Amino acid sequence: MLDRRYRMLMDKLGPALPGLLVMSLFINLLALATPLFVMQVYDRVIFHAGLTTLQALVLGICAVILFDFFLRQARSRVLQRVALAVDVDLGRALFAKVAGLPLQVLEARPGHTWQFLFRDLETVRNTVAGAAIVAIVDLPFIVFFLGLVIWLAPPLAWVFAIVAVAFAVLGLWNGLTVGHATRLEREAGMRRDRILNEIVLGRAVMKSAAMARPLQDLWEDGQAASIASSIRRGRLADSSMNVGASLGVIATIALTSVGAVAILDLEMTVGTLVAANLLAGRLIAPLSQLISSWRALAQMRDSAGRLAAILAEPDDRRADAIDLPRPSGRLQLEAVSFAYVPEAPPVLGNISLRFGPGGLHAIVGPNGSGKTTLLKIAHGLYRPSKGRVLLDDGDMSQFSRDQIARWIGYVPQDGFLFSGSVRENIARFSGEVADAEILAAAQLAGVHAFVADLPDGYDTQVGEGGSRFSTGQRQRIAIARALVGRPPILLLDEPTSNLDREAEEELRRQLVELGKSTTVIVVTHSPALLQSSDSITVLIKGNIALAGRSDQVLPRLMGNNVRQVGT
Ligand SMILES: Nc1ncnc2c1ncn2[C@@H]1O[C@H](COP(=O)(O)OP(=O)(O)OP(=O)(O)O)[C@@H](O)[C@H]1O
Fold first, then answer.
1. Name one GO molecular function term (predicted).
2. Whose CA is nearest to atom 1 of ligand 1?
3. Of 171, 172, 239, 444, which is the most buried if we count CB atoms within 10 A?
């Protein structure tokens, strides 16, 4: 059975392959015209002063050149179409896959891995439309040329056989060494780029903590390793190419010498020798091309492997079996345990909680106690390792992300925004959200007055990741984004951590108001929010230390340091 990476490539290349083979057949047949032409000129025109024959031969070869040109053009077009299919179809599939993968899979690999996947796509695209593929398609015709040469010039057969074996050995050695060196080169490049990526992400920390020098040292180490692996790969590839070139020259010399002896023994004509030499060129060209394209082919094989592996990963659920009515807002965690890595101890252990419908519910606990993880599980972003989450009475795992996003609003700790306008961000970049809905969400989140006051209002560009706004402003816009469509459940991760007193009080009032119709679950350390909550859950080291009505939990919480509750 075909490896899935080759299956993926054949999906794109397969439909074009018969056409390519037919065109290559004709191109290779036409390639016989030159040796035939030369043979005729040497053996007939020169010896018999046949100028009329020469004219006919020149006319014929001109027609052949023209036909050959059009065929090559057509072959290039076909390969360009294949490249376009890779770009469009695979590009679209890859983006949809990356966007559709479960959050846990996305978080399990460093961020730049995903960018590299799109470079993999470019590698596949460029190789599929490049000279290496033409050389591969030309490969079967080598056998044909070999047979022809043996038939035409039997005394040269053993020279051709030796040349073919020498190229096969070189190709094999090249494949093994250059393929491996290419892989090492990529890994070294990725390690170096990871440092660069982090420097860009953590630029403010780098500057404020004066970490530029040590980080540069780290990057230079990475760069040195990358250069060393490039040089090694380059050396191996150059050696193969040079050995290939030398083999080509040796083949010509051996053919000419053996041919000369055969001519002296009257076993062959001069024309046959010249023709055999030209045919040898046709035989060696695709082999040399393959050897010099080996790096591209090895990269394409690895890239296709990575792409195929990602494309085979299971998605988050995309489609719903049935369009269920809007839930009332009851959210229940049933004996939920969760571990980020299967072999590590669980971050959450056997959590059972019920929220709503409606009400303001607070979750508190020390750093690292699992509050954010709990919220992500409640939002279906992570699947529990054990237990389940129920939305009303339905198991959360049956719902698609689209449906969950409509029913559960989620405001992450950093309030990340995407480059674009405030309006686009609140509307989740959907053209289907009406202005009235955006305004209502902004008013509910208490961000309308601030946005309306900006010179470009809702058209204001937020910058990369929302960088043109303060963290508090970003968080308020993120709350508005979560409220679009008035989901029956709203999850907020420390929404007041970056707000001033006044904004905190305003948000508290709004959350209490929202709690009358919506189940609001908020991770918070804000005393004001805790006091206004209907229920409080205290998490310690991934376990529920205390949970219940806030008037019961709060006095114990106030009397104890949160870290000591439940111990
Ligand atoms: N992506 C991850 N991979 C592995 N472990 C993680 C990951 N994210 C969090 N953890 C671990 O899970 C535990 C709980 O983290 P979580 O972020 O849920 O805590 P938290 O209570 O929200 O903390 P904080 O109050 O600091 O935000 C921590 O021990 C943390 O180290």
1. ABC-type transporter activity
2. 107
3. 444
Contact 365, 494 (CB under 8 A): no
Residues 217-267 pLDDT 10s: 988 999 999 999 999 988 988 888 888 889 888 888 988 898 889 888 888
Which amino acid residue places its CA nearest to atom 30 of ligand 1? 368
Quote ipTM for the complex. 0.96
Residues β-bridged to residue 308: none
Span(s) in the chain for CATH 3.40.50.300: 331-558
Tell how far the Cα of 542 is from the centroid of ligand 1, in angstroms.
Answer: 10
Quote the strand ranges of 99-140, DSSP E.
none
DSSP code string of 254-268: HHHHHHHHHHHTTSS
The superfamily (CATH) of domain 1-145 is ABC transporter type 1, transmembrane domain (1.20.1560.10)
CA 373 / ligand 1 centre spacing (Å)? 6
Output the CA 370–ligand 1 centroid distance in Å. 6
Give the pLDDT confidence of 453-483 residue by residue, as tens digits: 999 999 999 998 888 898 888 988 999 999 9
Ligand 1 atom, smallest distance to 413 CA: 27
CATH class in words for 331-558: alpha beta
Q: How many angstroms does the Cα of residue 348 sit away from the middle of ligand 1?
A: 10
**Ligand 1: which residues within 6 Å by Cβ?**
107, 340, 347, 365, 367-373
And the tokens for 434?
A: 């009406």
Ligand 1 atom nearest residue 542's Cα = 14
Please, which contacts does 227-231 make with residues 24 or more away whose CB atoms are closer than 8 Å?
Answer: 228/188, 229/181, 229/184, 229/185, 229/187, 229/188, 229/189, 230/185, 230/188
Write out the residue limits of the CATH 1.20.1560.10 domain(s) in the chain: 1-145
**How many Cβ atoms are within 10 Å of 113's Cβ, its own excluded?**
14
